[in-house]
Design goal:
By secondary structure, the protein is α/β, with parallel strands linked by helices. It contains 14 helices and 18 strands. The protein starts with a helix and ends with a helix.
């Protein structure tokens, strides 16, 4: 976002001015409190005293996945008859992306979070999708009047959001009040990085070149994978940043070609020109059977297939948890069947069920609370999730999910074949492996 439009957005956000006329984004949601919600938000779904907002990128290559997360949250709320315990709840969907960026935008994330904080009815935030947006919104929602806003992400996986990392001050700097208000339902990247490295070893990939998009999530997962791979004896040939604004990556891959890699690992998101990155990999290094290609959950969407076309064939992608389409537990299967029937789809995107799970977490916390922001936040931790879609689960004292056996976390490895994303295997990295991945 550049030029006069960017300046107008920042000024408007600071003054609380509606952006509808200036940007044409959305319609400001109605509110019973004195402050209107951001103009990036739609009208409420249902009617309730308390409000949960979703904050997801609705522009660019993550739009399809984000829309399904919204639908999952709406379905869970509707099935609960818009009630969490004794409290009525409405859902408002908000966009943290811009068409110009085709992805999340820092100015929009800032303005959105400030808008949620001003609206006293907002007690829960289902988001963000991107960890880079999360690090912006977390300190703002943490200081929101009334004890903060409970924030539950369906897809953030960056380790530093909940645990110490190589970055100074993490995670404490995201909680300036001194108390946490954030949780997530996806498995953190140190487990995903370890799982991806385990899979690489099983495939016999001895030399791997790593690329990252330079964002909080992308650089983080690239580092986690590289750490885990080195611990297994795999040679990491390099870890370079790709420029999302570049017209092509031919020169980058010509450099990589000289190292003779067995595989390339892409740490980042499809929205950051990932389609072109994949196309040029195949053009220079050969198809994904000749030189393997692997990406984490940031590439696990059908938009990867749309953007990269046939070049995505044979690419491996992962999920920090269970694929929605593989759910076998009673609650998970019921959700899967209901979602397919309600929205007339045959398969779900990677993090669709995680959207439903995040909504379940927020509703469980609200139900246990006295209805105030601060108490919803307090009830977010050490929370068992009733009827958990993703199987027996709870949120621990740090805000991370624990599914079933707390000694290990599940990561699903999938492959793109014939235009579909199919599960290949499931990895269970140990805490010791995850610790090595964290660095």
């Amino acid at each position: 976002m550049t030029g006069s439009k960017s300046r107008w957005l920042l000024i408007a956000a600071a003054l609380g001015v509606s952006l509808v006329a200036a940007t044409g984004v959305g319609q400001a949601a109605s509110s019973k409190s004195s402050a209107a919600l951001p103009s990036t938000c739609s009208k409420p779904i249902g009617s309730g005293k308390l409000t949960v907002v979703t904050d997801l990128p609705l522009e660019g290559s993550l739009r399809t996945l984000s829309l399904e997360i919204q639908k999952a949250a709406a379905l869970v709320l509707k099935q609960a008859n818009y009630k969490a315990g004794k409290y009525t709840v409405q859902l408002v969907n908000c966009d943290d992306a811009t068409a110009q960026a085709a992805s999340w935008d820092s100015a929009v994330c800032t303005a959105n979070a400030k808008g949620y904080a001003r609206n006293s009815n907002v007690v829960g935030l289902l988001g963000t999708f991107n960890s880079g947006c999360a690090v912006i919104e977390m300190p703002i929602t943490n200081r929101a009047p009334g004890g903060g806003i409970a924030m539950v992400s369906p897809a953030n996986t960056y380790v530093g959001l909940t645990h110490k990392s190589p970055v100074a001050g993490e995670p404490d700097k995201y909680f300036p009040s001194g108390k946490r208000n954030y949780a997530r339902v996806a498995v953190p990247d140190n487990y995903q990085g370890a799982a991806d490295a385990n899979f690489a070893l099983s495939k016999g990939w001895k030399k791997i070149y790593v690329l990252n998009d330079g964002e909080v999530y992308g650089a983080g997962i690239a580092g986690n994978f590289a750490n885990a791979a080195k611990a297994l004896g795999i040679t990491v040939l390099g870890n370079d940043k790709w420029d999302k604004t570049a017209p092509n990556y031919q020169a980058l891959y010509q450099k990589i070609q000289g190292t003779n890699p067995d595989a390339v690992f892409l740490g980042g998101i499809i929205s950051n020109n990932g389609g072109q990155l994949i196309k040029d990999k195949v053009a220079v290094l050969g198809d994904n059977n000749k030189v393997a290609l692997m990406g984490p959950d940031g590439f696990n969407t059908t938009d990867t297939i749309t953007d990269a076309g046939n070049a995505s064939e044979g690419m491996y992608v992962t999920i920090g948890g269970t694929s929605p389409n593989d759910l076998k537990n009673k609650a998970g299967k019921a959700f899967l069947d209901s979602f397919k029937k309600t929205y007339k789809v045959s398969t779900l995107q990677a993090y669709t069920a995680f959207g439903g799970e995040a909504m379940q977490v927020l509703m469980a916390a609200i139900a246990k609370s006295n209805g105030t922001r601060g108490d919803v936040v307090k009830k977010l931790y050490n929370l068992t999730i009733p009827g958990s879609i993703l199987g027996p689960a709870k949120i621990d004292q740090f805000g991370d999910p624990v599914y079933g056996d707390s000694s290990q976390s599940q990561v699903t490895i999938q492959n793109i074949s014939a235009g579909k994303i199919n599960t290949v295997t499931v990895e269970h990295p140990t805490p010791a492996q995850a610790l090595k991945a964290a660095g």
